[in-house]
Design a protein that fits this description.
There is one protein chain. The chain is mainly alpha-helical. It has 7 helices and 3 strands; from the N terminus they run ααβββααααα. The longest helix has 26 residues. 29% of the residues are buried. The model has no long low-confidence stretch (mean pLDDT 94).
């Protein structure tokens, strides 16, 4: 399945979008942990690891790999340069919206959701997922609302910039 969907293109796209340089000598380790008797599944990312606990009966590889890419996008967000992180923080702090700090709080999760559960899902399935993309209401809504902007940046091979952050907060 991994070879048939060309996951590396989604990783490369994420590097460009996040403005992250990844040391190719550092592997991304993916661990799938089987579980009995659960309906849904969990996933998390840390250092260079993406981990998902998946029921043995789970058969939707597209969903699983969208979620794993979502977790990998957290790694790319964490891997942004200090300079870009400081610029993003400045753009948020300089924004006059009373909601800028709340938007900043949701940024990492909203971006990973828009990319993994939006863009990657659409790439795999040739249509946008009609279900919720995330199980927290405001992250789900934010990710879906910014998805057109995210797609525009991906299409134009652009990295997150001040305009993106201003549009995101708006």
């Amino acid at each position: 399945y991994v070879e048939s969907v060309n996951l590396s293109q989604y990783f490369d796209m994420g590097l460009t979008f996040y403005g992250t340089v990844w040391d190719s000598s550092v592997p991304i380790d993916i661990a799938i942990i089987p579980t009995l008797g659960k309906e849904g599944f969990t996933a998390t990312a840390f250092f260079n690891n993406a981990v998902s606990e998946v029921p043995l009966s789970f058969k939707q590889n597209d969903i699983l790999f969208c979620v794993l890419m979502h977790e990998i996008y957290h790694l790319l967000y964490d891997g942004q340069s200090l300079k870009l992180k400081q610029e993003i923080e400045k753009w948020v702090n300089d924004n006059l919206s009373k909601n800028s700090q709340y938007a900043y709080l949701l940024l990492d999760e909203a971006l990973a959701t828009a990319l993994g559960n939006g863009y990657v899902f659409e790439g795999f399935n040739k249509e946008t997922d009609k279900d919720d993309w995330y199980n927290v209401k405001y992250i789900n809504l934010m990710a879906q609302k910014i998805y057109p902007l995210v797609k525009e940046y991906i299409k134009n091979k652009k990295t997150i910039d001040q305009n993106f952050i201003e549009q995101y907060i708006k």
